[in-house]
Write a structure and sequence with these properties.
Elements lengths: L7 H11 L1 H9 L6 H20 L4 H10 L7 H20 L9 H19 L3 H19 L6 H29 L7 H21 L3 H23 L19
Helix pairs in contact: 1-2, 2-3, 3-6, 3-9, 4-6, 5-6, 5-7, 5-8, 6-7, 8-10, 9-10
Membrane topology: Multi-pass membrane protein
Keywords: Membrane, Repeat, Transmembrane, Transmembrane helix, Transport
Organism: Coemansia asiatica
Length: 253
């Protein structure tokens, strides 16, 4: 390792994140404006921040549901579609060897999405369906990582399908808010973090991932999340409807 003014307990994790060459350039030589390493370091920093944000982004939503014991204003179909997209995204990126900082938030968001989906089924009196759903999701996810069950070409096709799937997962929620004119138990923290996270992910994808499918998916996800964020702002102080749009009504699903 090159002699450095930065203590080793700080330099070592930094080098692990951005690479030894860029650590030498940016830290040891203090060449902070070197274009390649600057872009690379910014991408890694944003990627790590997005992954860390993904660890908590849905927790406010979980707490709101647990506190109110209500799933009013939240679309079950949106969450199921999002869980499927999460699983495919994780498998595709992992099996292609992309850096964890370019997709890691999908792991933590997926876990939280599954928890929210189970709560939605529980609070709408469909606990048995929740057990079947959980088992099906486990088998589906396992299959994606098993090359003998899902080959590379099939996985690429599935990942391509996640692009409309991600958009489809947002459409029911966007429509629910539009019809209700009320955001219900939807978490503003989650919505805005999703929007800013996908916008930042565009940059990290351009810098680190040479994959047009991944880029297209992030572009469309940013647009869809931007619409949700705009709705959240527009209906921020809207009054709650009288039991009209609770998702425990069988008509909603």
């Amino acid at each position: 390792m090159t002699d450095s003014w930065l203590p080793s307990f700080l330099r070592s994790p930094l080098a692990a994140l951005i690479g030894e060459d860029c650590t030498v350039t940016l830290v040891d030589n203090l060449d902070l404006l070197e274009p390649h390493c600057l872009r690379h370091a910014l991408s890694k920093g944003l990627g790590l921040g997005i992954v860390l944000g993904g660890c908590v982004v849905k927790l406010p939503q979980l707490f709101k549901i647990l506190k109110s014991k209500s799933v009013a204003g939240i679309s079950l179909s949106s969450y199921i579609l999002e869980v499927l997209a999460n699983a495919i995204t994780i498998a595709y990126n992992f099996r292609n060897g992309y850096a964890f900082t370019t997709y890691g938030e999908a792991v933590f968001i997926g876990i939280q999405n599954i928890a929210i989906t189970m709560l939605m089924l529980l609070f709408t009196g469909r606990a048995a369906l929740g057990v079947v759903t959980a088992a099906s999701l486990v088998f589906f996810t396992y299959s994606l990582f098993d090359v003998s069950l899902v080959g590379g070409s099939l996985l690429s096709t599935l990942y391509g399908l996640t692009i409309p799937l991600v958009i489809s997962s947002r459409i029911p929620q966007i429509y629910t808010i539009h019809v209700n004119k009320y955001t219900g138990q939807l978490s503003a923290f989650a919505v805005f973090n999703y929007f800013f996270g996908t916008a930042a992910r565009l940059f990290t994808t351009l810098v680190e991932v040479d994959d047009s499918l991944v880029l297209l998916g992030n572009v469309l996800a940013t647009i869809a999340n931007g619409i949700l964020a705009a709705q959240m702002l527009y209906y921020w102080n809207a009054p709650a409807p009288k039991d009209k749009y609770r998702l425990d009504s069988k008509k909603k699903e």
